[in-house]
Amino acid sequence: ILQEKRLIENVPFFIGESDVIREVTEFIGLVAKSATTPVLILGETGTGKELIARAIHFRSTNFSGPLVTVNCAALPKDLIESELFGYEKGAFSGARASGKRGWVQEAEGGTLFLDEVGDLSPEAQAKLLRFLEDGEFHRLGGTEKLHVQTRVISATNKDIEDLIRRGLFRDDLYYRLSVVKMRVPSLNERRDDILPLAKHFLVEFSRDFGKQFSGISPEAAAALKAYDWRGNVREL
């Protein structure tokens, strides 16, 4: 009952009538059965990778634990270690007197979602790999070995295999992150879902703005289905 309540409150439902989106939904249910297996989500910008990560978390047995989202592209190079793994008091100039728990520790018992993982610097990749190998880490400036159990879900819109070939992403980290790998289809690959999604958004925004929505004209429907949605669901 508690999980059903959390699902209702936290998980966006997936809208669509295509076989592709049904396959994605089924895949989420399958992956969620394991609370520790790392998952790598690949897909273009705007396809809903973060929504899928949330759905996996709240359908897992660790649903009552925290879901911590980290935007890897926004991590300053010199703060990566302290942000991910935390630090002890006095670890560096400007550090909090009490020290700080890192995002890895904040996600204990739940899910750590690393968004835009393809943007991690080589230094950050090495530190993350060490954690993924055994779940152990040290806070910056600390000597105590800490252990955290959390599921790691990562996502990127980049071609990871191309980054590996160019020496920009570690292949050993890739294998650790992609124990289970899924590719999210673009909106252009699921055109049967364009109108159901458009109707959903129109109803939602009509409610917000106090307007009445009666339907989509044939001309508008044809234009929506013919358009090249490079920005995917986000653009729609």
Short description:
With 236 residues, the chain is an alpha/beta fold.
How would you describe this protein?
- Residues 7-12 have low confidence and may be disordered.
- α6 packs across α8 (171-177).
- The two termini are 34 Å apart.
- With 236 residues, this protein is of the alpha/beta class.
- It has a 5-stranded parallel sheet. The chain has a two-stranded antiparallel sheet with strand order 3-4.
- It has helices spanning 2-10, 19-31, 49-58, 80-85, 103-106, 122-134, 160-165, 171-177, 194-209, 218-226, 232-235; strands spanning 39-42, 67-71, 86-87, 100-101, 111-115, 136-137, 146-147, 151-156, 180-183.
Strand and helix map with partners:
Elements: H1 2-10, H2 19-31, E1 39-42, H3 49-58, E2 67-71, H4 80-85, E3 86-87, E4 100-101, H5 103-106, E5 111-115, H6 122-134, E6 136-137, E7 146-147, E8 151-156, H7 160-165, H8 171-177, E9 180-183, H9 194-209, H10 218-226, H11 232-235
Parallel strand pairs: 1-8, 1-9, 2-5, 5-8
Antiparallel strand pairs: 3-4, 6-7
Helix pairs in contact: 6-8
